[in-house]
Write a structure and sequence with these properties.
Elements (H helix, E strand, L loop, with lengths): L1 H33 L6 H12 L3 E3 L6 E3 L4 E3 L2 E3 L2 H8 L1
Antiparallel strand pairs: 1-2, 3-4
The structure holds zinc ion (ZN).
Protein name: Deaminase
InterPro entries: PP0621-like
Length: 90
């Protein structure tokens, strides 16, 4: 009789372990597949996009906005191209 109880308890434990493993795997798959989850990988991707951005400047000649790395500085002003810097300083 005690052997039967031992086997019943063992089967119950195995079933409970398998169910908890399946539930954890299911939650992991839902989190990766949907893409709508705001936490986790999406948040890090968004911060990476923000890190890549650079400040924009306004051309003193034509008013166009351009990346600060492409700025042409002349007499303390920022221009979108060397041509506009020359036009303004003439
Ligand atoms: Zn310009």
């Amino acid at each position: 009789m005690t052997r039967l109880l031992f086997w019943i308890a063992l089967v119950i434990l195995v079933v409970m372990a398998v169910r908890s493993k399946l539930r954890a795997a299911l939650e992991r798959a839902q989190g990766q597949g949907a893409g709508a989850a705001p936490a986790g990988a999406d948040a890090t991707a968004w911060s990476r996009v923000e890190d890549k951005s650079e400040p924009m400047l306004c051309c003193a000649r034509c008013g166009v906005y351009f990346p600060a790395s492409e700025a042409v500085r002349s007499e303390g002003r920022d221009y979108c191209s060397p041509a506009h810097a020359q036009l303004e300083t003439r």
